[in-house]
Every structure is written in C-alpha cells, then in structure tokens.
Amino acid sequence: MTRHVLDRTSQVRDVYRSLINSGRTYAAFRDEDIEFVQKLSGRGPILDPMSGYGRTAEFCDQLGVPSYSVEINPPQFLWQLLVQRSNTTFFSAFLELIQRTRRRWPRPHTVAVASDTFFSAECSQFITRLLALLVALSESFDDIPFSGHRPYAPLAVLIPFLGRLMCASPGNVSAHIRRGGTCVFSGWQEDFVTYLTCLLTRIQHRHQVSDIGPESQELVLGDARTINLGRRRFKAMLTSPPYPNQRDFRAILRPENEFIQQLVLAGQLPMSFSQPDSIGSVKVKGKAPAIPHSTVARNFLKRIVGLRKAKRATYDDDVYYLPYFQNYFSDLERAYSNIQKYAARDFSGYIIVVNNTHRGVVIPVADFIRDIWQTMGYHAEVARTIELSHVGAKNPRARGIRASHTEYVIHVCRRKH
Ligand SMILES: C[S@@+](CC[C@H](N)C(=O)[O-])C[C@H]1O[C@@H](n2cnc3c(N)ncnc32)[C@H](O)[C@@H]1O
Questions:
Q1: Neighbour count for residue 177 (Cβ, 10 Å)
Q2: What is the Cα–Cα distance from 128 to 125, expressed in whole angstroms?
Q3: Are 237 and 410 in contact (CB under 8 A)?
Q4: 153 lines ligand 1 (CB under 6 A)
Q5: 247 lines ligand 1 (CB under 6 A)
Q6: Is the CB of 244 under 6 A from ligand 1?
C-alpha cells in the first residue's frame, strides 16, 4: 500500500498530523509499552480509566485481549472511535464515499477570513455545511455495524480537520494553539482529499491482529473521578494519568472542544459535555483548591511554599502554581479512589507516569501515586524507571534537573492478607 503522509501544508493541527502519520502523539504510550498488556493478558478486560488516544485498546486489539477504556475529553474519545478496529469497515466505507462525492462538498462564500475567534461566522457556517453533508452521507451505512453512538461518526471524521477551517495561530509549543488568525478557504478541497486519504491509511493500518470479537474493546466518555461501573470488577489495569506540567488535554484541544460544545448547546449533538475540568486542568481561577490527603503531596507543597524565591515567583506560586498542584493531586486521589472500587480481589495494574520539576524541585508524582494506592491497601512498587531527556520540556535549552524527566512504571496489586 502506498504510504501517504499528511504534511504541515495541509494545516491539519500537529497533534492530529502526528496521530494520523504515526499513530501516537504527546504523552501517548510508546510501542514498547505493549509488554504490559502481554503481562496482563489472561485476566479479562484491561481497564484504562484515563485512556487518552486509546493505545491501551490498540495494544489489546493486537494481542487479542479485551479492554475497557474511559476518557473525559470528547475530541480524544472521538479519535478512539475513529481508530477502533470494530469501526474499520464503517469508516473505510464512509471515507471512500466522502471522497467520491466531491461535487457535493460545500463551496465557501469567501476566499479568506481573518478573525480574533477560532470560528468566525464564515468558518462556523462553512463547517456546519460540511458537517451536514457528512451526516447525510453517513446515513447510507445504516447496515454496517458501528461501535458507539452513530451521531458521533461524522463528527469523529470532521474534528481532526477543523484546524484547516478555523482562525488560529501557532502557540509556543506545537501542542498549543492561539485563538485568532486567518483562514484561507481556497484550496481546502485538496487538503481535505489528502486528509481523507491519510486517515484512511491510518485506520486501515493494523498490526497483525488476533481474532477476538470486535466488541471486546469497550469505550466510554466519562470521568474517572465519578464514573459508576456498576457490578463490573477488573483484574487488570494499564493507565497513565495526565502529568502536572501545564499541558491540559482539554486546552490542547480547545478549539475542537469549543466546536463540540457549540453543537451540544445548539441541541445538535446528543453528548453530555457538562463534565467538570479534567485532571491537570490549567484553570484555577475561581475554584476553591482542594487539599490532597497524601503526605507525599503535602510535603511537596510545603517545600514549594518554603523555597527562597523572588517576589514575582512567590506571587505566581500563590496565585497559580500551588492551587494548580493542589487540584491536580486531589483530583488524582479522587479518581484512583473511585476506580479501585472496581478492582477484583486478584487485581494487578500498571501505571506509567513521568515526573517533572517545578523551580528545580522534582514533582513526586510517582511517589504520590504509590502513596495513594498503598494508603488504599494495595502493594504499589516501582517496576521500572527510564530517564527521558527533554521529552515534553517547554524549554529545549533546559539543563540539569529541569531537563530530566524520569518515567516510572508502577505496579499495583492487592495486598495479600
Ligand atoms: C497521559 S494521557 C493518557 C494517554 C494514553 N495512555 C494514550 O496512550 O493515549 C491522560 C488522559 O487522561 C485524561 N483525563 C484527565 N482527567 C480525566 C478524568 N477525570 N477522567 C478520565 N480521563 C481523564 C486526559 O484527557 C488524557 O487523555
């Protein structure tokens, strides 16, 4: 099969270009992490309560292991629907039909538009017309099974392409984007063709997959802090929390979320979008910071308060960083405490996490996670550490401790009595 690559000129956002071209992006599991699914196979469905772009399900699919994934962020949830193996037949047929019906694609009323919002009136109107066409085309496939809610299918195809049809400017790192800029409509059709072709290649690209029933990879849009999994009990978990490095997944995908929210508010999309901010949200203003229970978290916070620092740094810590860390730690405590209710007696799980630094102090996320699970009555030990340099660093010139990011794999299991 010819390999199609979506390049920068397509104006598809970097995060989606990288998902389409390579199957992963910032903070997603690396290919080697499949070894944890191997270790957990034979234990029934593997739970991933913060499943991101869905690599746990992908690994499980490759190895014939069932999975159960939860994700709070709608654009990431939609990406997972798009690449789920059970939806390959549906999306292959759908993407091919979209390409064949080019005559029906909407024509923009203007060549270009500049705006200080992501979606100027012209952009919104144009995207709405394109979405209406996708909805109409998707109705031709009522006979092809689809895992998930059907109204999500056209949106799942449109969302990664939104970057091409909105007014935005690049942020200081590629995951970030700034509101406002220009959108040049002319030539959008060629970019859409390239996008559809590359996306088709991605969803049809499969490693050797085993024969497990497609319904075995379950996916829900939900909040790990509050989700109710009823009587389900899991014997296995592979997961990775957001890291406290100001990379908020909702914010990375802000325009996509704004667009989805507009559809929900207009009653055009039956999706529950009322969830609170995700864990690691950069929004602290107006929120009463919660106090974490973990001693590791509290000691870290005390250490930051006690650091000798300039007036400006003290102000920034008081107003932003300390509440941010407090929320982060408390939210993660809430999530794991909720999730562990669904752990079977012989539960075994792996949590992959990267420690960052703040003002030269290591943010002890790995120790904190061990502390939470141990306090809940589990064994929680570091199974492996890897030194990663600069990965995720905002400042590529960072040296020493600021440049060092250690990845920890924490193994969690029930304590034997
Ligand atoms: C490090 S990423 C996981 C990446 C994933 N392992 C992969 O390979 O794609 C953490 C994920 O947790 C999600 N998340 C944050 N808060 C959450 C919550 N309360 N419930 C469920 N998911 C949440 C984020 O949206 C993000 O996608």
A1: 23
A2: 5
A3: no
A4: no
A5: no
A6: no
81 contacts 89 by C-beta, under 8 angstroms: no
Which numbered atom of ligand 1 lies nearest the CA of 25? 9
Residue of the CA atom closest to atom 22 of ligand 1: 50
Q: Which ranges of 311-398 does DSSP label H, i.e. alpha helix?
A: 311-316, 322-339, 365-375
Say if ligand 1 is within 6 A of residue 408 CB.
no
Q: Check if 355 has its Cβ closer than 6 Å to any atom of ligand 1.
A: no
Which neighbouring-strand residues pair with 113?
Answer: 183
- φ, ψ of residue 149 to 5 degrees: the values are -80, 125
Residue with the smallest CA separation from ligand 1 atom 13 is: 50
CA 162, CA 119: separation in Å to the nearest integer?
Answer: 10
Whole-angstrom CA distances from 292 to 284, 327, 360, 412 are: 15, 8, 22, 20
Place of tokens 């920034």: 316
Nearest-angstrom CA–CA distance, 372 and 353:
14
How far apart are the two ends of the chain, measured CA to CA in Å?
Answer: 55
* In the chain, domain spans: 9-35+45-225+232-279
Contact in structure between 113 and 185 (CB atoms under 8 Å): yes
Determine the Cα–Cα distance for residues 336 and 241; give it in Å rounded to an integer.
10
Residue by residue, pLDDT tens for the chain (417 residues) are 555 789 888 899 999 999 999 988 878 899 999 999 999 999 999 999 999 999 999 999 989 999 999 999 999 999 999 999 899 999 999 999 999 999 999 999 999 999 999 999 999 999 999 999 999 999 999 899 999 899 999 999 999 999 999 999 988 777 788 999 999 999 999 999 999 999 999 998 865 566 665 558 999 999 999 999 999 999 999 999 998 877 788 889 999 999 999 999 888 888 876 667 899 888 888 888 789 999 999 999 999 999 999 999 999 999 999 999 999 999 999 999 999 999 999 999 999 999 889 999 999 999 999 999 999 999 999 999 988 765 444 555 555 555 567 899 999 998 764
Closest to 243 in 3D by CA, of 293, 197, 210, 278: 278
Token pair belonging to 376: 């809940």
Q: What is the per-residue burial (b if ≥16 Cβ within 10 Å, else e) of 336-362?
A: bebbbebbeeebbbbbbbbbbbbeeeb
Q: 357 in helix, strand or coil?
A: strand
